[in-house]
Write a structure and sequence with these properties.
120 residues, mainly beta, 11 strands, elongated
Length: 120
């Protein structure tokens, strides 16, 4: 079983920055991609950013382009989300997810989420 653990959430004023971290662990597995999904109050889940493990191509949601940067550490099976120019609309629970293969079978694995609150 792959365990995904996030850290780095908190409260920040509008215009500020936060950096989220996430690491996958547990047994033998191969990561194919990792990313961040958020869910704000009264909103649907939104894919924020994703990075492919081989090649490092990235995807960003329209609402965060130019403000957020996703990066990875292949050796640590870790992914990071640098969030700049935060505004109250970024307030959400941020979930880390990975698509990984265990014994050749690919599945999604999710963390418990970390709260990000941006005050005006």
């Amino acid at each position: 079983q792959v365990e995904v653990v996030e850290s780095g959430g908190g409260t920040v004023q509008a215009g500020g920055s936060l950096r989220l971290s996430c690491a996958a662990s547990g047994g033998t597995f191969s990561v194919y991609s990792m990313g961040w999904v958020r869910q704000g109050p009264g909103k649907d889940r939104e894919l924020v950013a994703r990075i492919n493990w081989y090649g490092g191509s990235t995807f960003y949601g329209d609402s965060v382009k130019g403000r957020f940067t996703i990066s990875r550490d292949n050796a640590k099976d870790a992914v990071y989300l640098q969030m700049n120019s935060l505004h109250p609309g970024d307030t959400a629970v941020y979930y880390c997810m990975t698509y990984a293969a265990v014994d050749g079978r690919g599945s999604e694995y999710w963390g418990q989420g970390t709260q990000v609150t941006v005050s005006s």
